[in-house]
Predict the 3D structure of the following.
Amino acid sequence: MRKGLLASLGPIQLGGQIKLKLFPVLISPKTFILFLNMLPTTPLFEVVAKILRYLLAGGTATAVQLGLLVGGVEFLGLPYLLASGGAFVAAFLVSFILQKFWTFQDKNLGQWQRQMIFYLIVALTNLGINVGLMYVLVEMAKWHYFVAQLFVLAVISLESFGLYNFFIFNKSPKNSVLILTGIYPPSIGGPATVVRHLAHSLMQQGWKVRVVTYSISPKSIQFSDPWPVRRISLGLPPLLRKALYALAVLDQGRKAQVIYAFDTYTSGWCAWLYKMITGKKYLVRFVGDSAWESAFEAGKIQDDLPTFIATKYSPAIERAKARRAKILTQADEVVVPSQFLRRIAEQIGVSPQRIKVIYNSVEWQGPPYAQEAQKIRGESQASHLLLTICRLTAWKGVDGLIMVLPKLLKDFPNLKLMVVGEGSQKGKLQDLARQLKVEEAVVWVGRVAQNQIVNFLQAADIFILNSFYEGLSHTLLEAMSLGKPIIASRAGGNPELINDRQEGILVSYNNTQEIYAAIMELLKNPALAQKLAANAKAKSKLFRWSNTFGATLEVLKEVI
């Protein structure tokens, strides 16, 4: 009979439901492994079994290292340094294989090289921790070296188990996604509403959803959802705010199979960083180029977006462009809302095979309230009400709309231009209105809640979007769905929604002659205005949420 520890255990009652009966057995490594496999699959016992497997795997690797060291020196006559180095490499490989495939049950072969690199980094870091702590405990705290070594081994074991379990060999729940966004309800805005609607639809399909976002005051948020939402305060200093956002992604990312970044920069950069560390795949939603927007708003450039991508500028601008390109080109999929942005993404360097066009949807937006729309119209005191809804930035062309007012007012003295939105250019635009002596004809509404946009659209006679650049305007889709006469610039994704003189009238950006002529034609030809509006409303029915969500779900499944 082999030597060993004889164990005789009678019946064991577990949780009042599970009985295990272990007959007299000889505790050997093989028997111990069989015992671990017999443990019931409750969460507690899964953790216990994992810890026991972790310790046994580590002990096995140590035994391999010592055995090869002794065998190399004593039996093969190798120099002890050579034997020690060879034994370390062999033990490292044994430890990695056992921990990956047995302890943590990670059968995925796609990440083994990255995992091995991080496993080696942890091993070398632990060597430094071992030396440093031993010195502190023995030389400074005056501990006995053997007691100190036991303590250090315990610390290293706990630290390594945590890193292996939560990061290196982490297994995420099936059909799980982490959504990264800069804005989320109760904050207002189209992206916030879309993210929440997407999360709700995914949960209905059995997906596990998590969200990381910024928030004005996280502690005061009473808004709750049936999925975890990690909020980072916008009131914190920028560097601290971004660091906490990245840490939240590191924490929440391990609980998801894939990451979906809803903007390119902060969210996209965190998704990219997480992929560099763990290899986890990510999608990024590319709806506009912030590098171009920032440079144009600051007056540093006047070029359009395609020219901006192809041209070299200052080092600061080029760094922003390079950062954006890195995030997009290394994403597993890039989701864009228009063919225009597909071409832009390709120009940046994204592989065409990894670009998916998924159009926005307005089907789930609530209907306008007739009383609210009538109130807005009455308070404007306008005989004819023109409406534009946008951020008041340099490329949105609100100045071009103000410049046509003097001529329009000659034919329609009580006409008003209503401007919904806020932005850095508001002061300059108000000064322009005063210079042209049309300040009484401009109604500055400011920022309004997303669910109120439809009321302003319903109140207007014509909706105008005179932008220099547009990915795909969600507001334009809303105006179409409400059957509004539309004038839009031939910019970006606008022509994908509006065919000239079919669903609206297209004009050149800030061309005051074309804008004036289009407005006059719609005001003087109600039949044409009604026809274009009806066509636009009919076309808007193609942009259903079911189509948007179905395409998004398909991309998520492809990436996983």
Residues 43-75 form the longest helix (33 residues). The longest strand covers residues 208-215. Residues 176-361+549-559 form a domain with the Rossmann fold fold (CATH 3.40.50.2000).
